[in-house]
Every structure is written in C-alpha cells, then in structure tokens.
C-alpha cells in the first residue's frame, strides 16, 4: 500500500473544501489558532512514517490527552477503575451534567469531561507530582523531550471553565473524588493543554496498534487485554456523541480534541493522526473527520 500517495490525494481533496468548521472559542486562547492549518501523519507498527502538511507543528491536544491519562489509570487501578467510571457511550455532549445526577456521580465513560476528571483524581492520588507524571509518561511513549503544557491555554481554560468546575464539584459531592476539586481541575486543565504534533501523536499512541507494546522504545506499556479495552472505549466513546457517525464513516477507534486533532488506531498496522482546527457541531475536527473518512475509503482499511 502506497500510504504517501494516499495521504497526498486526501490532502488535495480536503484542501478544496470551503466549509472548514469553526475554531473553538469557548477556551479563548484556542480561538487564536489559524483555521488553515492542516496536517496528517501515519506511522506503521514497524515505525515507518508518512506525513503531509504541518505534521511537525504542535497544537493543543485537549481531549486527546484523555487517552494517555486513561492508560495510566488502568495500569494503576485495574478492574476497580470501572467502579468509579463507566464504559458506555454517553450520547450527550462531552461537557454535559445531565446524566451525573441520576447516575450518582459515576460518569458514563472516561472520555467525557466528568469521566476524565475522575481519571485525573486517580493519577493525583497515585503520584506525588501528578503533572510531572503525565508529561514523563508521554515523553517516554514518543521518545521525545519537548512535550510540555501550554501554560497560556491552561490558564485560559481555568479562567473560563465554569462548566468543568461545576462537574468537579458535583462529582465530589457524590464522593467520587478523593482530592479537592480545585486540585483535580488544575491537573485536568494542564493535561488538556499539552501540546503535540501529528508526528509525535502517532509515536505516542503506537502501542495501541501494537497490542500494548511500544515498538519505538521496546517497552510494554500495558497488557494485550487492556489494549483491547482501550481501543474498544475509543471506538464507542472517543468522539463523544458522534461516535456512531465516526464508526460509520471511518471505522477506526479514534480520539478527538477541541484543538482540532484526531488520532485513529488500526490495530496491528498503524496509527494515523490529523489536525485541522475548525470543528463541527459536536466539537470534532470537521476536515479531520473528512480526511480520515477519505483515507479509509481509498485504502479499504478499517477494523471492519
Ligand atoms: N479542555 C476541554 C474541555 O474540558 C476538552 C474538551 C475536548 O477536547 N473535547 O472542555
């Protein structure tokens, strides 16, 4: 398969699309990012890399970071994690409060904000310095040192993230946070601000396509069974209330973020990432989704 040729074709098609979606502005700092950025990277499990566009340029990973914290939490907690957070699609927007009340403060899944806050709490309880631990984890995964928080983005979200503040307090009231909401939120806003490029993202997530073993650093990150579970949750919950549409159009376990990035896993073969900051109604990258759909249609590769 000539992946480079296909990436080139996808790029040409996507470039011609006028409707590019809307850059997130509810986190003011994110609204400053130009909507004409576009990048893709594909990395095979034998570490061959194919790229197009601004694949080395870092952007705000936002919710994509939740897959790294979930991997850490699964390794810390094992099965007991699922007592504190569910694994069913929510069918509501990623920052919704609705289900939390009737479901007694147990978030539907780890990829909506409420679930990610519980995951953050687990990491804070485990490590003396939670923020250092997530940076260290990602740096080791991609074998790159320049993975950092974007302090401007973290501050911008802390100043405006009233809904996340509400979620954290609500969950605390149901006794599903051990730490203080303000500390959990500080960790959460920082993890969301982590900046990575498409190339770095494909390296850091390659273990998900390789049964939990990172072929770049020759290290096992998590077990085969947990890798299966991580990919399943990515497929059913990784793109929020658009997970059905994503599975239908792309057919790969995927994680998106409101910074406009998406990373998608083809088990045993490769990881593909895309970045285009303009979002659709659900908060997923509009052209990113289109590009992944074109890619899986042209290659006839998907998990189905
Ligand atoms: N930091 C964002 C928020 O909490 C992450 C959401 C996202 O990327 N979907 O709203």
Quick structural summary:
The chain has 304 residues and is α+β, with helices and mostly antiparallel strands. 47% of the residues lie in helices and 13% in strands.
Give the CATH architecture.
Answer: 3-Layer(aba) Sandwich
Q: Give helix % range.
A: 40-55%
- Between the first and last Cα atoms, what is the distance in angstroms? 18 Å
- Count the DSSP helices: 14
Strand content: 5-15%
Taking strands numbered 1, 2, ... along the chain, how are they ordered across the largest sheet?
3-2-11-10-9
Counted beta strands: 12
On the 0 to 100 scale, the average pLDDT is 97
- Ligands (ions, cofactors included): glutamine
CATH topology: Beta-lactamase
> What kind of sheet is the major sheet?
5 strands, antiparallel
Structural write-up:
By secondary structure, the protein is of the alpha+beta class. It has helices at residues 3-15, 65-77, 81-84, 98-102, 113-126, 130-142, 151-160, 162-173, 181-193, 198-204, 206-209, 224-237, 243-249, 286-299, and strands spanning 22-23, 39-44, 49-53, 59-60, 148-149, 194-196, 213-214, 219-220, 254-256, 261-266, 270-275, 278-279. The protein has a 5-stranded antiparallel β-sheet, with helices on both faces. Strands 4-6-5 form a 3-stranded antiparallel β-sheet. Strands 1-12 form a two-stranded antiparallel sheet. A hairpin with a 3-residue loop joins strand 10 and strand 11. Helix 8 packs across helix 9. The protein starts with a helix and ends in a 5-residue tail after the last helix. The relative contact order is 0.20. Glutamine is lined by residues 62-63, 94-95, 113, 157, 164, 192, 257-258, 283.
């Amino acid at each position: 398969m000539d992946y480079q040729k296909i990436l080139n074709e996808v790029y040409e098609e996507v470039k011609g699309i006028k409707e590019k979606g809307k850059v997130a502005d509810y986190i003011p700092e994110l609204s400053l990012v130009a909507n004409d950025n576009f990048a893709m990277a594909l990395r095979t499990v034998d570490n061959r890399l194919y790229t197009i566009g601004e694949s080395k340029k870092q952007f705000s990973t936002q919710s994509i970071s939740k897959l790294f914290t979930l991997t850490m939490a699964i390794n810390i907690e094992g099965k007991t994690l699922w007592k504190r957070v569910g694994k069913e699609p929510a069918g509501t927007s990623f920052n919704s409060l609705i289900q939390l009340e009737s479901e007694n403060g147990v978030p539907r899944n780890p990829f909506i904000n409420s679930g990610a806050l519980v995951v953050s709490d687990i990491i804070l309880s485990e490590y003396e310095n939670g923020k250092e631990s997530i940076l260290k984890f990602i740096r080791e995964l991609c074998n790159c040192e320049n993975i950092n928080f974007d302090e401007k983005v973290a501050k911008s979200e802390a100043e405006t993230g009233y809904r996340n503040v509400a979620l954290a307090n609500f969950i605390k009231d149901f006794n599903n946070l051990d730490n203080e909401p303000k500390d959990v939120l500080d960790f959460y806003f920082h993890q969301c601000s982590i900046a990575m490029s498409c190339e770095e993202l494909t390296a850091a997530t390659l273990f998900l396509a390789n049964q939990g073993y990172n072929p770049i650093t020759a290290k096992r990150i998590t077990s085969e069974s947990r890798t299966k579970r991580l990919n399943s949750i990515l497929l059913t919950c990784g793109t929020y209330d658009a997970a059905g549409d994503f599975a239908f159009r792309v057919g790969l376990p995927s994680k998106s973020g409101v910074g406009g990035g998406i990373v998608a896993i083809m088990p045993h073969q490769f990881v593909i990432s895309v970045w285009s900051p303009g979002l659709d109604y659900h908060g997923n990258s509009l052209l990113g989704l289109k590009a992944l759909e074109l890619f899986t249609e042209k290659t006839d590769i998907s998990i189905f």
